[in-house]
# Entry
Amino acid sequence: MQQEFHEIFVKYHEIITLGVYGTAIGLMLIGLYAVLMKKNLVKIVIGLSIMDAGLHLLFIGIGYVQGGTAPIFSPGYEDAGDRMVDPVPQALVLTAIVIGFAVTAVALSLIIRLYKHHHTAKIDQIKSLKW
Amino acid sequence: MEDLGLKIFGAILTTIMAFAVGMTYGGIVRKLTARVQNRFGPPFYQNFLDLVKLQSKKTNVAHGFMGHTAPVWIMVASITVLMFIPILNGNLWFPNLSFHGDLIFILYMMVFGSLGMALGAGQTGNPNSAIGVTRGLSMMVGFEIPFVLALVALMVQYHTTSIQDLMQIQHESGTWLIFSNPFAFLAALFASLGMFRYSPFDIVGAPAELASGPMSEFGGKYLGTMMSGGSIFAFIKLTLYVDLFLGGAGNPDHTGIWATLAGIGVLLIKTFTLYMVPVFYGWVSPRYRTEQAIRYFWGWPTALGIIGLIWAVY
Amino acid sequence: MNLFFIILLILFSSAILAFISNRIVRGSSGIIAFIGITAASILFFTRLSIGNTYSFTLGGIQMQFGLNSFTYLFAIIVLGLGVLASLYSIQYMKGKERLGYFYFNFVLTILGMVGIIFSQDFITFFIFWEIMTWSSYLIVIYNGYSSSKVGIKYMIFSALGAYAMLTAIVSIKGIYGTFMIKDAIAAGAFNFTDHFYIPILLLIGFAVKAALMPLHVWAPKSYSMSPMSFTAIFSGAMSKMGILGMGLVLTSIYSHASPEVSVYSLILKQVLGWLGGITAVMATIYALIQTDAKKLLAYSSIAQLGYIVVGLSTGTKLGVMAALFLAVVHAIFKGTLFMVAGAVERQAGTTDMTKVSGLIRKMPYTFFAALLSIIALAGVPPLGGFVGKWMLYESLITESNNYFLVIVVFFSSTAAFLYSYRFLFGLFLGQEEKETEHVKEAPLTMVIPMLILALLLIVTGLYPGILFEPIAHGMEYLGYSHVNWDMSVLTNIWGEQTNMSYIFSLIGIVFVVVFIFITLKGYKGTRNVGTKEISTSGEIPLEHENLTYQMDFFKPFERAAAPLYKRSMNKIWNDIGNALEAVFNFTRKIYTGNGQTYALFVIIFLVILLIFKDSLFAN
Amino acid sequence: MVITPIHYIVVPLLAAFAIPLLVKIHKELPRIIPGLVMFYNIIISIVLMQQVNEFGYVSEVIAGWKAPWGINLIITPFSGFLVSLISFMGFVIWLYQYRFKKVIDVGELKSYGILQMMMITGAIGIIITGDIFNMFVFLEIVAITAISLTSFYRHRDGAEAGFKYLLIGGFSSTLILLAILLLYTQVGTLNMAEISERMHLVPQGMKATILVLFIIGFGIEAEMFPLNGWAPDAYSQAPGPTSAAFAGIVVKAGVYGLIRIIFTLFDIEGAFDFLIIAGLVTMIIAEFSALKQTNLKRMLAYSSIGQMGLVMIAFGIGTKAAVFAALFLMFNHAVIKSLLFMSGSILMYNSKDKTISTLSGMGKKLPFISLLFSLGAFAIVGLPPFSGFWSKLYVLTAAANQEMILLIGAILAVSIVEIVYYFRVVSKMYFAEETEHIAIFKPSINAKIAMGILGAIILIIGLYPDLITGYLHNAADMILDKASYIDFVLNSNAPVQ
# Structure
């Protein structure tokens, strides 16, 4: 059963990889679109988050080794080094997610305050600081 | 030492002669002008009578230090310049104190008197005087341009800044500079119209308009001394022109008494002829306004001067 | 410790002391400044001799202080005028506000100039140059905000000049590897073959300080707005720093230019000469329409500096000598004249010539100083000014064959009579104002410096040789060989001579004789009257009436020369300034204030870089 | 206790977390603690700089994993110089802000202290870490704290500035992360020394792409045009001490990142030319924009951007003399611009509508502050004998050695603009008619001391630059000597603590 699954996996590996990359880049572009085109502050922040998510996905996709195992050295798996999934991108993504979370939190709190003062959440109406 | 004594004697003689000639010329012009205007006019020696009258006035009105010294400045300028202008070419009796009569020095020294008079006139507090002075100064900026152009043309053409040398050159070559650089001469001649301040350039004194301009407040000994200085000055200007353009007078090779007298005679003829130019011009022209006068000098006379200079260079 | 440092330190500490002491004892700053400058001068003239040098390293750059015969000439100007102006300043500034501030900058300016004189390398030169600039800027704005636009203008042009200079300096370092002035000259930094921009940039830098057209627009107001005791130095000495630099550069160009590029140096000669000439003419005609005596003098300064530049531009022996002589004489008479203006300002409250008149009886000594200076300024014999003018004309006519330039210069100097007269008449002559009845002669400490300077003019007229000596040494330092000079005989290269002592004695004798004659003749009958007693159509003007002719003084001339007044350089610069400001204002619109736009910028920039990455970041 | 580089990070970080606890003990503690921490940091700096002088490098391996596997902290003359500078500036800024607002509620004080400590942690971390991802994390710490500090005042403009900063900062983090990812796929390591060693394996196109991403990512923090839209807003809206900290600390970290990437990681010649062009454009646009500003702090902000442009130019020239000049510029910029922001903030508090035109008469009301502001203005435009002159001179000399005459011309032309707007302010302050009287907020004595220290540094360095040129020369050597850095990190036998 496991073997079968593995074969199927190998078979469609390329498609899946492509899919992962495509999804990641697609997400990033969607995020970018939201950041650049949407006027609503909240939507812009959502766009930023989507962009981050796409990037994280890209990380994971790149770090994945086909048929790899968990990156843990343990008795009986001394040769795991050859076929384990690269742990570094995953660690990075974990950190990045945390950071993204922090950024979003700050952003949302700022939006609240902006809305309080300007009574609008349209970014093109909030430009008392210019030139 | 004997030489020095002779020189001083000559200097005094020159001064007296210049004074006499200047006064006489003035008188003659008054007479002539009157005749042209169909008046009888005063005798030609009227100027001397005037002077005597002025100098013998008992009361003189002094307007402060500058007013007091104004005649002194004029006399200083006249006499100093006179000493630097060769009257007769190479003649001992009319000493050429000039170490060659430097043109630039003379140009500037001639202003000395005007400056003193202007300051004196300024101190009197009479508005007419000040107006006259400003007119005079403004006009000077006008006529100095063609005049200097002409002088520079001569200097450049003959590589000398000395009047004596220029006279010598004319003497040796036999050609007057009026012929070798006619444009420069014309420019200078036009400038002389302004220099003598006859109509149409009589805007400084401007009789009937500014009283008598800078002179308004002067009288007695002051006016008398100023008149003397002015007369000397008129002679200086004429002699300068004659020296520069009309070949000067006198002959360095013959310095005997008769030659000298002949030289003086030639000088008188030449200067008088020259003097008649502004006078004639004045008879037929009404007075300019100041800016018209300035513009006049900056027009053709300057153009002629420039042509003269170019002529001299090439 | 080295003597150079001691002198600079004395000046520096007296600047600091002057700043502090005013808080302790009001008005003591002036005295401290005077003492400091005097002490420095005494030390300078007694202990320091030409040829001394001292090398040191600062910030990894080899530097050198030294004194050579060329800079010594300027040291005479700076320190001499500095001592007198600071003495004058004590009374002039008395009772004004922020004296500590004023004297701090006053002494610093002198420090800057002394430093420039000491500098043997470009870096110290530049450092002191900038110290001089900003400290003088601080004085220019001393009189208040109304003049602060003036200050900005001064600073902009100074910065323009200084940075042009700095560009040249670092280029010299980059190309020839040295900051030493002597080494750079020897290495051929100024030989005009390649890197011709170096001398040009340096000249621009110096031209600003020398108020050369078209970089002069800062000068009229800066000169007239500063306190007069400072302007005496500002115009008298500081502008000479520009002349110092120009002299150095120009002579190096002329003496080092190789034959194949002599045409360029010929062009440079012509350009500079004509710039100087035009400066002289334009400044003169602007001077004569001024109604404020201070502005009149300011314009006149610019005109005089124009003559000096003309002289320098010839590069001939007589021309350079004339320029340097004029530089010294200009320092003397313009220093005096600004002091005179200051004295009038202090005593009568204003220097507006339409409001003041007839001060001659009130301030006779001041008038005397003014009279002598004006005679020198106008170039009328027999004072020092004439000597300089004579040499200038002679050199132009006989040596450099620049005939039309002679006419231009002559035009300017003839027109100079107009404003000379205007100055004397406007302040001192004419009828006395009722408002100025209380005016008294300026205090002694103000009169003495003026009189000393005025007497110096007589000396330089009688014995110009005492100035020729240092000038000749300086020129020999610059590379001219066999500079001939005489105590009082001027000689041009055609061999024609003018004997100053001769002229002087002649004028003196005639003056005395006629003066005695006119005074003694009918002495008893002479009636001294006031200025109100005049014959105006047979009426005597009333007490309160003032008939002095002061308004539109040279209106006829103005009308005649109207085309010359049409385009003012000031306006052109203002237009340029406004255009630049508009550009700047437009530029900052990039920062729209919209966060999204900024984000867009980032993305666009990213895309552009990614597109061009191969060409941009090729290995 | 042995002092090691990790203290730099740990101590402020600990302090940041301790502040909310300590405030329970005494409500004045959040005021004092940052000062103590910064003082300790200065001590570390002194000790470590001595070691650096002795051995050349000091490094520390975290958790026993040697490089390239673990994260290492490394202090070179260059990073040592910068962290010392940051520590020092941090201390001066603390001195200045101590009692900046007398009446301040504890909550605000607490959060301010936390944020500030975090920011300094981040800035120092960026500089001393040898791991690129670690650098990214620290950069994010700096960014988030800086954003929070920007909008620290709860008025509307603060939030706006903060949001803009956040928006652009978000891009910055995304791009850097992407770049790190790409780099990792190519070289398979995150240690900077190892990356640098393996860089030649990376294909050209990929290398350039990564570089572009890095440049934009760090360029945002380093205020490169056109990525600096956030900067003027953030500078002008942040509290006074924070503005000073931006100039003295945050930007320095950003530039450090940029320089590290370009000099150590990559060996692409074109990047230097790019730096020159980018720096030039940054400088020109910023100084032009500064000219017509009416708000003093905004003007200072633009000026700050312009200075960073000059720093970029100097680094871009790339010779040793130029790098030395760039470091000198960074030092000067930190000191002078902080002084300007400090004194400028006090001036602004005393003006009614925070515009330059209301500054008239300040010279009389606040003589000391005005004097220091003027001193700063004189120094920043590069007038001798103040410290700003030397850095400008060195930059120009370095440029001249490469015969970049037009570059020199451009720098100096822009300097004239700089002079105009600074001197406008100075003359306004001293020589304008006093406007209406408003209540004067006098700075406390400690603020005066802080500014006095900076002023004294400006003067002393200006008169005797040799005091720091030695350190700067060492630092410049290090930046250019990539090989020995790699060698040290990877095969080090030197004292590793």
